[in-house]
TrEMBL record:
Stored InterPro entries: Aldolase_TIM (IPR013785), DapA-like (IPR002220)
UniProt cross-references to SUPFAM superfamilies, sorted A to Z: Aldolase
Positions contributing to pyruvate binding: 212
Keyword Lyase: yes
Family: Belongs to the DapA family.
Source organism superkingdom: Bacteria
GO cellular component: cytosol
Keyword Transmembrane helix annotated: no
Cited Pfam families: DHDPS
Organism lineage: Bacteria, Pseudomonadati, Pseudomonadota, Alphaproteobacteria, Rhodobacterales
Protein name, per record: Cytochrome C biogenesis protein CcdA
Gene Ontology MF, one: 4-hydroxy-tetrahydrodipicolinate synthase activity
Keyword tags: Lyase
Length: 305
């Protein structure tokens, strides 16, 4: 990948059949639908892909299917997070060998209390940096429970050549993005946010150049970023205000289930099944989701019909 990524890099959901098996054909349809939405890249095997519910064999199969099927139409980012540095390095090497444009990883953690000191976090990323030659995106998310101070992130950006993208989705993300950009400057190719774009306007004000949302409706969120970066901040604000009710419902009520529910309703995938111990949406939450999605005439709601 030679061009710096901006815009929207959504996470692809992992479709399952009603019996819980991976839907390989559904995965291909998910990727095609996202590309038809005009995304700038696609991220696979992330938390919103239910990566924590996939076996190693399933991960390998999904990575192969995704990279072969996308076939360079857009860059593909492969999430490689794991507590074990050896496993993360092996995943990174495999992703690069198969054609991934970038890898994304969280700091090492296991539960709420098992994670290394800052030196161990740096060494974890350094090991991957030395093993591959494609960009690495650091995912700074509350899920890990690991605090990644700005000085540590800035040091990683300055000293680790391939660590050049940062997905900041912790509380007060805008302030952290601004501080990180100030501290590391040109060493950061892509300051991004996440959390379904619920703080996107503030994060763009702070210097973000893109967002990694779910795959629910990137065709509506991408213009927020492109209009802002083009200098039309008023138009970006208006578009964000249009999107915000659905963003909020997804972020606060649905989580990763929103995208799968809408994709199933629109015929992109055959089932909105989530693996146990996750539970399906309540009928109340599902009904409001589909109403909000219908009001916005989402591509996903009609793509497979």
């Amino acid at each position: 990948m030679t061009q710096t990524l901006t815009g929207i890099l959504p996470v692809a959901p992992t479709p399952f059949l009603d019996d819980g098996q991976v839907d390989e054909d559904g995965m291909r349809r998910v990727l095609d639908c996202l590309i038809d939405m005009g995304v700038d890249a696609i991220c696979i095997l992330a938390n919103y892909s239910e990566q924590f519910l996939l076996s190693d064999a399933e991960r390998a199969t999904l990575m192969r299917i995704s990279l072969e099927h996308v076939a360079g139409r857009v860059p593909v980012i492969v999430t490689i997070s794991h507590f074990s540095t050896d496993i993360v390095v092996a995943r990174a090497k495999a992703a690069q060998a198969m054609g991934a444009a970038m890898v994304m990883m969280m700091p090492p953690y296991h539960g709420s209390g098992l994670f290394p000191a800052e030196a161990g976090v740096f060494e974890h990323f350094d090991a991957v940096n030395r093993a591959i030659s494609i960009p690495i995106m650091v995912q700074d998310a509350p899920l890990s429970g690991v605090t990644l101070p700005v000085p540590l992130l800035a040091r990683m950006a300055r000293e680790l050549e391939n660590v050049s993208y940062f997905k900041i989705e912790c509380p007060f993300a805008a302030d952290k993005l601004a501080s990180l950009i100030e501290a590391a400057g040109d060493h950061i190719a892509g300051p991004f946010d996440g959390e379904e774009a619920v703080t996107l306007l503030a994060d763009l004000d702070a210097g973000a150049t893109g967002t990694m949302t779910s795959g629910l409706f990137p065709e509506h969120i991408r213009p927020i970023v492109t209009r802002y970066l083009a200098g039309d901040h008023d138009a970006a604000l208006k578009q964000w205000q249009v999107c915000l009710p659905l963003i909020n419902h997804e972020n606060r009520q649905c989580g990763l289930r929103a995208c799968k529910t809408v994709y199933a309703a629109g015929g992109v995938i055959r089932s909105d099944h989530v693996r146990h111990p996750l539970k399906p949406l309540s009928e109340r939450t599902r009904a409001r989701l589909l109403q909000l999605a219908g009001d916005m005439d989402l591509i996903a709601l009609k793509w497979g019909k």
